[in-house]
Amino acid sequence: MRLPAINMRRTYLIARRDYLGYVKTWGFWLSFFMPFIFGILGFFASSWDFKVSPTRYETVLDETGLHKAAIIQLDADNKREIAEEVMSTLGKTLLPETQAKEFEMLVAEKGAQAGQDYLEAKIPGAGERLKIPDSNMIFIEPPSNDLDELKAYMREDKMATYQGEEVKLNGVIHIYEDEGIKADYWSPNFNNPEAERLAKGYFRSLAMDGYLAGGNLSREGLDAARKGAVTINTFDPTKTNVKEGGSQKVTMTDRVPFIAAAILSGMLWLTVFSGAYMLLTSMLEEKMNKLLEMMLASTRFTEIIFGKLLGVAALTITAMLPYIIIGIGAVIGFILFGDPEIAEGLKNTFTLKMIVFFIIFLILGYIFYGAFFIALGSVAESMQDAQTLTTPIMLVLTACIMVVPLGMNSPDSPILTFASWFPLSAPFAAIVRLPSDPPLWELCLSALFLGILSIGVIILAERIFRFGVLSGAGVKGVTDWFKRKILRRKTN
Fold first, then answer.
1. Phi, psi at residue 172, to the nearest 5°?
2. How far apart are CA 195 and CA 184, in angstroms?
């Protein structure tokens, strides 16, 4: 079989054209430097002992006097195993094979702290940078032996103490006798039940140990022992909407608002991104087809920007209208015919406050991102340019939407509060915070701040738009400007 003839020069020219076509774009260099930017941010975050979730202070109120010490010891054992596993992994990665085996034995015999000291001795500075991971959960002595008084601590009416400092009591594992051993978990942050899981694991292991010690073993008996373990109910001491005869027990009614807020944040993200991306491609196509130059003969820059924002907004809403109708129908159907707990939770979710702020942040988020994408489209020179711009923008948007799981698990996280003020993530963070009932002034101020920044982005986009359309300002346009204005050189 005869192989096709290949001219190496023509092949080289085609390869060079494609390579330089992408290298000369904005998106390529944004994507190129993105890992370094995130790496630097990660380094500083580790140096500052940065925590995503605040430390949770838990306690055990054990009226039986039988299980408190064992639960706390189980927590200590779990933390020790995690620390030793992390240290062993670091040793295998950083040390030669002979030293790694010695290091692993040292960690197994003397613990993670000895391993950290060993690393510091072998690699100066490593022990300080590669610290043993701190736990976000600390058990403290109960500030009171009365459950009602402990509820006051969890509502922050009173403050507990730990190592001489005042701290908030986040949760209580309450163990008591009531026709057998019973256990409840009380916490205002019931979406982050680390202590509850610990107690469940303890009682499950206790039931299995009791079964194995009795002899007459079988798989069916082991399954029955697991199912017969002490169950733990979750209660929220800050719950005030308790009907007559009810309790502060956490039900689906309490969890549904957090789930619905997460879904709404995801829809908001999808709406903003799909509309903004259409603006980017529309702007680029009209720029390449010279339509923008014709439009500028009879319209202003700002008129084009606002016209595109309104047009694509209408298009986006039209495209998503079937999903909106189906969603509204599903919510109404659940409220009328669904499980009463879910129905009540949906009623608590779609309050006037939620609807109003959802619409406000939807509009502001769309304007902010839309103007940003219009500016990018005006400086893009080709579809290659637009494609390479998509990757870093997607990375940024994905990082912003990560506030949604954080808002469900740690609504009191300082990261979430910061995200509600940071313009790129504010629309999503503000919505996911609503079920935890943040102060109204924070929501209003966050919306006002985002609105002011949106106006600023529009003004900046108008200037970039003018420069990009009239000057063809891609990477070459900026380098030419730099040579003319900074280096005082002539350009072609």
1. -135, 125
2. 11
Residue span of the structural domain in which 222 resides: 56-235
What pLDDT digit, counting tens, does each position of 293-348 carry?
Answer: 677 667 777 777 777 778 877 777 777 778 788 888 888 888 888 778 788 888 88
Q: Are residues 231 and 264 in the same domain?
A: no
Q: Are residues 186 and 256 in the same domain?
A: no
Residues 364 and 434 in one domain: yes
Quote the CA–CA distance of 221 and 164 in Å, as a whole number. 48
Cα–Cα distance list, 227 to 135, 205, 251 (Å): 30, 11, 21
DSSP state of 246: -
Distance between CA 12 and CA 352 in Å, rounded? 63
The H helix count followed by the E strand count for the chain is 20, 7
Whether residue 442 is contained in a domain is answered as yes
- pLDDT tens digits, one per residue of 194-246: 888 888 888 888 888 877 777 676 767 777 777 777 778 788 787 776 665 55
Last residue of a domain, one of 235, 265, 282: 235
Query: Environment class of residue 352 by beta-carbon count within 10 Å: exposed (0-12), middle (13-18) or buried (19+)?
Result: exposed
In a domain, 444, yes or no: yes
Give the predicted TM-score (pTM) of the model.
0.69
Burial (CB count within 10 angstroms: exposed 0-12, middle 13-18, buried 19+), residue 25: buried
Residue 114, Cβ neighbours under 10 Å: how many?
16
Q: Which residues contact 352 (CB under 8 A, 6 or more apart)?
A: none
Place of tokens 């949604």: 404
> Could you tell me the CA-to-CA distances from 3 to 8, 10, 254, 374 in Å, in that order?
14, 17, 70, 48
Residue 407 placed within a domain: yes
